[in-house]
Specification:
By secondary structure, the chain is α/β, with parallel strands linked by helices. It is built from 6 helices and 6 strands. The chain has a 6-stranded parallel beta sheet with strand order 1-2-3-4-5-6. Helix 5 links the parallel strand 4 and strand 5.
């Protein structure tokens, strides 16, 4: 989903499968998200601290997907030393579980795929480096949005995120 509120509606409607909120969520949603096992997108230290505090309070694990900024320039950690430190912070938390890592293509819907391919390389290299550096296996790696799911099969990784194509749009 795009927001915590959308995720809450799905839970209230009886959806029990994992739900990931792909955007920023406000701290007032953390308690309910953890209680209802809704996955967080994380990319800021203050988020980690507050989510960890709430998870500890509930004695429950908070599942997170780290967003990596490879060129969209909205949200995300940088694929550099600062990003490595952030990943280390996530994986050493007692109350936070790294379930996934992802990026979002800025131009996968363009006819020319050079930018999207470059983003994919940056993301793939960063994921590989994190797994090797910290001797971990990140369960879910994902980057393919609707356009990439349709035209860039090499980017499918562990899952794809079909958005606008669900409605038959490009």
């Amino acid at each position: 989903t795009a927001t915590a509120e959308e995720a809450f509606i799905l839970r209230k409607s009886g959806i029990t499968k994992p739900i990931l909120v792909l955007g920023y969520v406000f701290p007032y949603t953390y308690e309910q998200m953890i209680r209802e096992d809704i996955r967080f997108t994380v990319f800021r230290e203050d988020m980690l601290m507050q989510i960890e505090e709430e998870a500890k309070k509930q004695q429950k694990t908070a599942f997170v997907h780290v967003k990596v900024d490879t060129g969209m320039s909205r949200i995300g950690i940088s694929p550099d030393e600062n990003g490595r430190e952030y990943i280390q912070r996530v994986i050493t938390s007692k109350w936070i579980k790294l379930e996934g890592i992802f990026t979002h293509f800025a131009k996968a819907d363009y006819a020319e795929k050079a930018d999207a391919n470059m983003q994919f390389q940056i993301f793939s290299n960063f994921c590989r480096e994190m797994e090797n550096t910290f001797d971990i296996q990140i369960p879910l790696k994902h980057c393919a949005n609707s356009a990439a799911a349709l035209e860039m099969p090499n980017t499918h990784m562990d899952l794809v995120r079909i958005g606008i194509s669900t409605y038959g749009l490009w």
